[in-house]
Amino acid sequence: MANIEHIQYINVPVAQVYNALTSTEGLSEVWTRELNVTAQPGAINEFGFGDEPPTLMEIVELVPDKTILWHCVGSDPEWIGTKISFELEQKQGKTSVRLRHMDWQDVTEFYRFCNYNWAIFLLSLKQYCEEGRGIPFQERKF
Question: Family per UniProt (predicted)?
């Protein structure tokens, strides 16, 4: 099994970052504008990326201002069964976001592409939280 791990530091309070990662408004600016999101454990959130089948994430855990854990139940076959976690911590007015995409079966070309795109996701999150505008999928140039 392989994992993707990244960390980002954002110059805003942790509650603002948590809200960006759990709300329709935040995720539509950070990840994709094609979404249906409910912030509660057990909910299946849907994220659209153009012509691809939607990505379906079950919310496993939500601990306000600390932890978000998703389980992928629908997407590219390499994602199904993987988990994505966001661990948040505030220190001296900055929030650290530790993103983990866990339980990949193999390190493949798609794994490497997703690794790169999770870094872009964290850049988008930082820009959204600090400047009010992220880089959603619809505005990215691949």
Answer: Belongs to the AHA1 family.
